[in-house]
Amino acid sequence: MNDHLYRPGVGIMLINHDGRIFVARRIDMPSEAWQMPQGGIDEGEDPATALFREMREEIGTDKAEVLAESDDWYRYDLPEGLRDRLWGGRYVGQRQKWYALRYLGSDADINIETEHPEFMDWKWAPSATVPSLIVPFKRALYQQVMDELLAKIPPSLRIAG
């Protein structure tokens, strides 16, 4: 199924001690574009290694432990206006392995002013509000990912709404 048209990547649903989910606002989008940390898998890298590397690169810390992994790879297509701008126009979207992680650090450990910053702001959001914060072309994927991963983690790690 045309996997070569989709950039392989990982997605990270990071959950804090209150059961809220980490979202960050993209620095390169003029609209309110929030997302969970995510990124590409380097050549020869496995998804589990990529997820901790991406955490360090995007939020400055990898103080977390894996709680759950998606059974399959999720895909999304980029809107026409973005396809030519991202990744040299090589891909039509991404296929991603998603992970739920328990955050073990403090808010002070999070630093989005990394070497190549991708975010201008971040916050912990209740799970029910996360899909509404996400750019429309990723919204359905985020809802599917959250439905799968939240069902796999202990209820004590989730908060209502």
From TrEMBL:
Q: Does the keyword Hydrolase apply?
A: yes
Give start-end ranges for the coiled-coil region(s). none
Question: Locate the Nudix hydrolase domain: which residues?
Answer: 5-147
Give GO terms: molecular function aspect only.
Answer: bis(5'-adenosyl)-pentaphosphatase activity; guanosine-3',5'-bis(diphosphate) 3'-diphosphatase activity
The record, for PROSITE patterns, names: NUDIX, NUDIX_BOX
Q: Recite the UniProt keywords alphabetically.
A: Hydrolase
Catalytic activity, EC:
3.6.1.-
A biological process (GO) of this protein is:
nucleoside phosphate metabolic process
Q: Which Pfam families match?
A: NUDIX (PF00293)
Motif range (Nudix box): 39-60
Cofactor field = a divalent metal cation; Mg(2+)
Entry similarity comment? Belongs to the Nudix hydrolase family. RppH subfamily.
Q: What does this protein do?
A: Accelerates the degradation of transcripts by removing pyrophosphate from the 5'-end of triphosphorylated RNA, leading to a more labile monophosphorylated state that can stimulate subsequent ribonuclease cleavage.
Q: What is this protein called?
A: RNA pyrophosphohydrolase
Its taxonomic placement starts with: Bacteria, Pseudomonadati, Pseudomonadota, Alphaproteobacteria, Rhodospirillales
